[in-house]
Structures are given as C-alpha cells and as structure tokens.
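User: Continuing from earlier, I have the next pair ready.

Assistant: Great, send them over.

User: Here they are, in order.

Assistant: Folding the first of the pair now:
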Amino acid sequence: MDVKELVRRAKRSLSLVKQVSPVAAFGLGVLPIGEEAGIRIVARASGASARTLPFLLRLFGPETRFELVPDDRLREALGRVYLAEDQGVNFPTFADGDFLEREETFAILCREKVERLSIQGWELPENRLAFFHLALEGDRACPDTPSPEPEFQGGPLEFPFRLDRDPPEVYSLNVLPQEVRAFLRFDYCYLGGDFRQGIVAGGVRGLPVLLHPTEIQLAHVAPDGTLSIHLYDHIEEVRPGDTGTWAVRYWYLDLGQRQHRTLELHLRAYRVVPRDQVRLVPGPAPWSAEDLRCFLQMGSAYTRAHIAGSTKSR
C-alpha cells in the first residue's frame, strides 16, 4: 500500500482517525484506515516493537486487524493526515528504557509533552548586546531495531560574529537593528539514522530560544547578564565569560520503537558588551583554523563512536 492509498483510506475513516491523537499515532506507529464488518483496520509500522501491542489493543480494542507498512511510508502518510505544513509532534519522554512495562505509560503516550519553563524572558538593558556561541552534539540509539547506516546532511556554515576581535565584530550588516538583543551561533552535529552537521546563526529578538525541541532552551537573561539555560528537567545559570558542558539523556517512542537520545551541550562563549562598541563588517565572517578544528572535531568524535558501536554489534 503506497502513501497515497494510505492517506485516501485514512481520510475516508476520519471518525476513527480522530480517536487517536497525533502524538499517539506517531509514537505507536499507527494509522486507522478503515473498518469492515465491525473489524477496525489499522496500518502499523513494520518496525514497531511487539512490546507496544498491549497499548494498541487498549487503543483500538481486540476487534482490530493490523496491516504492516514500511516505516518511512507510514511516517509520510501520518504527516499528511495529522499535521499541517511545518508542524510536528513533541513526544513524551522517559527517564529509562523500561517505560513500556509500566501501566501509566499508555496515558502518557497519548498526550504531547508540554515543556514548562520556570523562568523566561529578556531583562538585559537595551544598551547592552549579548553574544552566544553554543554547540550541540546528539546521538540516538534504537535498541528495538538495528540502526541504518547514517546518511550525511550538511547544513549552512556561515556565522554572524567573531568574539576573538576587539571590539567584537558582527558580519553582513550595515545597521544593527534595535530589536536585535543578541546574536547566536549554534553549531550542531546529530547522529542516529542520519548524520546532520551545520551552523544555525542569526539575531535574537527575545527569549526563550529553542535549541532542541523542547528539552534545551535559552530561557532567560537577567539584568546583570545571568543566562538561564533550560536543560530537560532543570535550569543551569551562567554568567558572561563562563563556559560549560552539560549532558541530557532520555527515552521516547517513535513509530513503536524505543529511542534513546543523548545530547551534549557546550557553551563555548558568552559575552555581553555595550551596543555602541560593536563593529559592523560587510561580508561573511572569516573562518579561522580554530573554527575549522572545533567544527570537524565535533563531528568526527561522534562518527568514531558510531562506527565503534556498529563494529561491536556485527
């Protein structure tokens, strides 16, 4: 059954589709596509773990027939049925990999995770400008299904400022917009099904700023420049000039498969300076040898770890 047919049948069975929340459909890997003689027909991700079957029977009842569909095909169909363009779902997360064994998990899987920040907003004086340079390394492992070899997806490689100059330099701008309160450089490298590496950069007009949905966020800047970073289940506070590294680990369910996510956030630089002391420079920021070394080292460390893990499992 191709994606077009899955979507057609699901849209003809909207009363069944509406009984399943988008996050439950994506998490458990299911899409209702019809009913025959009182038997519900549900497309199910072919890679879904058998450990999710008790949840499916609670969701649809015993009078259900499941038709296995390749994971990528089902994911695309789910997106067309449940989500608007550029919309996603925020999976609930768990502290350990045994969450499918617990009774209360079923209700949790049916609700999107709502991240509640204990503090958020911008209180830095308007005559001050902040610069954030952060890097995030992420890995994702699936104990239920062998991980495919990652495919590299390169992202943009331009960044907006240099802090190793005096005064700090901001590039590709002739005028510093008053509504821009800070500049962000965010280097990222993700493994787990794919290999993505690049740089997200630009001006910041307010907080919070989402770095990884929704577990890592720049949440608040106090009048004295103290930055509050939301890290999964707690807040870390840093001051201008500080650096630091923090690790976040959690589990979630995607298409009926348990996923173990590891994130490591590096604060490489944080400065607050008077706005009138910033130098604007036309053209893109030049790369230094240190920029290149840090960027390539971030990707290669995770690539080596992935290759080592794959080799051990063979």
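And the other member of the pair:
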Amino acid sequence: MRMSTSQPRTLADDLRSRTDAELVELLTARPDLVNPIPSDMRALTTRAATAPSISRFLDDVDAVHHYALRIACALSDAGPTSTDVIVKATSKDIGAKSRAVVSQAVDRLWSAALLWGNQDKVNVITAVRDQVMNAPVPSWPPPTCSAGAVADDEVEAQAALHARRTLSVIEEVCERWRRDPGPVLRSGGLSTRAADALADSLGIDRFELTCAIDVAHAAGLIAIGSTPDDVGWMPTEAFDAWCDSTPARRWAALVQAWLNSGSVSSDRPLAPDEHPFIAPWRRQMLLALTDSRGGCELKTVVQIIDFRWPRRAGKKRASVIETLWREAVLLGVVAFGKLTQIGHCAVEGVDVATMAKKASGHVVAESDHVHVQADHTIIAPGPLRPAIGHRLREIADIESRGHATVLRLTPTSIKRALEVEPDADVWIEFLDSVSTKALPQPVAYMISDAARTPPASRPRLTAPPEPAPRRRFRTTVRPAVLDRAVRVLRAQESRESISPIPSDVDVPKMESATVVAQLRYSIDHNETIHLTHVESDGSTAVLLVDPIRLGGGSLTAYDHHAEQVRTLAVSRINGIATLQISA
C-alpha cells in the first residue's frame, strides 16, 4: 500500500489521487468496472461501491482476504484504522507465520478499492460489511495435497483406459438408440428403469452410464428425435462425424463439452443438475490440482477449494465437487488424484485440436481386425475402430468385455443385422475382410441360412441437432482497453470512442413471471444483464444494469450507461440477456 501524507476524504478522492499504474491494478482486479468504461471518476466510484461488483471480486479471493476484511470492518466501525493494526489483529487470529500473507492481502484489498485511504487511516467500503461479517478464521497453514507421488506414465495410462471405456459406452448406447430410441419422460431425461436396464446390459454402474450419455448430450451427440410412433433419445448427425474422427479427437471433444457444461450428472440420465456455479466450481477443482506434484485426495481438494474460494463453501458445493471428481476420473481428466495432460489442457483453455494432439500419445491404438472362430464367436483383442465395432455389434451380441471383447453370432443377432442390410453376402464379405484368417464355413452358412427368410427392414434413426444455447456475452479486459480506460478517467479521451460491450445485443422477450425469476437469479448470482425497458415515451431501450434489489414491483439496479443507481418498474421490463464479465 502506498505512503501518503494526505488523507482522502472520500473514495472518489482516493481514486483520483491514484497513479495510472494503480488504476490499471484496480481495473484488472475488478474487470466489471471497465465494461463499459466509466465516463469519469465519479462514475467509477459509484460502480466500485455497488454490492454486485464487490461480490464478484470476493468470489475470487481466498479466506485470508475475507477474514482480513472482517477484521478491518470491526476495527473501522467507529472510525478509520491503520493497516498495521489490521495486519496485526488478523495474523494474531490466523497464526503468527501468516503475517506476510495477511500484509499482501491487505495491499490487494486496497488495490481493488475495497479499502481506501492511506496506511494510517484506512476505511472500508460500506457494501463490504454485510458480505464478510461471518467470515471464519482460516486454517493455517493452508491445506495442500500430501498424497504420495505417482509416475506420470501410470497416470496417463489409467486416464486413457477410463477415457477409452467412456468412448465405448457412448458408441454402444448411440448404436442401440439408433435402432430402438431411449424413452423420453414427460419431465425430460431417461427413466430409472430404462437406465438400469441399459447399465446392466453394458455391465457398468448407473453413474458411469449417466456420466457418459450426459457428456454425449452436452457434446451434441444425443438429442430427442421423432420415431414413426413417438419421440425418443437417439444419436444426431454429429455422432457420425464424431465416430469418423481419431480416438484422441473424440476424447478431446468430450472433455471440451464437459468443461463448457453448466450442469453435473444427477441420479437420472439426461436430466442433469444445473447450477450457475457448476462451471466455476469445475474450474476450481482443476486449479486445485495444478500445483500438486503428487496425488491428491478428494477431501483435501475440497479443503483447498474452501480456502482459496470460501464464498460458496458448504454442503452443496462439496457434493457437486464430489460428482465432478467422479466425472473427471471417467473422462480421463484426473487419474490417481493427479491432473492428466488433457486435464492441464483443460485448465489452460486450449482448443480441441491442441488437446487431441496432447492426448494422442496416450490413447491405445484401435484395431481393424478380429478373430472369427468356427464356434460362432468373434474375439476383438483390443479397442476397435468405431465403424468396424459398430457393424460387428449389429451382427453379433457382446458376450464379455475386458481387455479383449468376445462377441457371439446368434440367429437373433443375425436377423437384427439383416433388418439393416438384407443381403447376406454383404455381411459375409464384411466379416471376411476384418477376420485375421479365412472366414470359417459354419459362420458363412449360419448367415446364409438366416437370410432365407429376411426380416422387415428397420430404419436407422437420427435426431436433428438441438438448438444452440442462448448466447451469453463475454467480455475481456485487454491491455489496450485498460490503457484507454485510464485516459478516459483522466479526461484525456471521451468514453464514446470505446465500446467493449457488444452493440448487437439480442435480448429475448419473456413472460412477466420469467422476468421476475431471471431478475432474482441475477441478483443472487451477481450478474450483469442487458434488459429491455419500456420508457415513459413508449419507446423501448436496452439497458445494461447490475440488479441490486427486487421488491414492491420495482427493481433497484446500477445503470452502467446512466452511471447511477436507478429504480425501474418490473412491469416495464420485457426481456433479459446475461453478460459474463471475465478477467
């Protein structure tokens, strides 16, 4: 924290006296303050003191920051205090060895303008007090992973094994649902009975099935489509394109879909548990593992998250983290409590192609040949290319799974294949082409005999792609924007020359009940939103606001364009679109 001989009277005076570098630190720590760029210091001060903006900052700082703020609030209740007193009181409660960390936290809180003044007279922004009044004393030293080291080769091999299994589950489920679509419940999702039957036939547990098909749905591989009699869950055209790609690419596509998902697997497949903080909690879980050299237990990961991001700690988050952990293991993102290479790619935010390139060296090569035996069994010594595996599963039933898969030709399975392709010679030629030796005569005879009374053909069903999710605007703070923002605040440039907010905002129309629900949601989760508001002259304006309170038919919100807190009649609001702010 800077040394100053003069004491600013207000937060506005404090911000005006800060250097350009200190303003850049503030705007970097709180990127929402620069979207859109405030027209002057007064507007910046108003925005920086609003509860939604403060909440966003507190969501990303650790327990030491929260407790230091709580102490600062208590010490400055009757008047300004000093940074030395705050640091001494906070470190006394946490532990003497925490003093350096506490001092850094207090400096950062001043840089982010939650504290203002000089070292001898420090004040706390009023809106902070209610948000940190119950902050607990942090554990010290901070929790860390302490499990033993695991060889990287073992980690990657285990991850590839789990990923390969998940890929196989998705392939088999989609193939089955192309013939016989999964039943869709009125409330959405797949019935428990259908899920249990499917899991039993695949020889896996319910959660593994649920995770696999939920991720496939998130990746656009599964959707609801029409059948001749009803609707059902079935693969989309994207599934065929996915199968045509390399195994590493298929793996990376699933991981990317999992990362972007706003939900977590629930007890019922295809009816995931949605929550606005699932995506951030997923990232927190991965970040907690990035600094670990050895393995880490789930319990320790939760403790690390609770220390580094205490704002949402509780049973709900712990439960979600546990489920996300199980999903990460099945997808090969985590193995033996360590982040895998594809997991590190996920943290770094690389694209699917780069992620696939990193994963390619660890994926078991797929085979295009099998052993067809005279006793009507087919042995696949390893994972098969999807196109070959798909056709084999059409004409034969899986008898056992493991490192090698055993399939058996039966009259029923051959009839099933003939429903798709009635020409027996086509199937005989296919088996002969993938067999490591000449096709045994009993196998060819069995297929020819079944074709003497060909069954009725059955269509291969495909669902249309689901509509893209509603667009959520994301803004970032670039160095060029920060530089120009400082120039605006110093009155060296007009704000109108910069427009980091999208100008073509598509705000969907909503029913009044939906508007109220969305406003409550935005208030609870500190969202910045665009809303359409009917003005007094009858025109419709698109406003950019931070909702603060809702009650009595009115919304109290900070209007970014008017740069002041306004009260809006909820009856005049007919649409809302969320804006995501990120550093």
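Worth noting for the second one:
The first helix runs from residue 11 to 17. Residues 510 and 575 are 5 Å apart (CA to CA).
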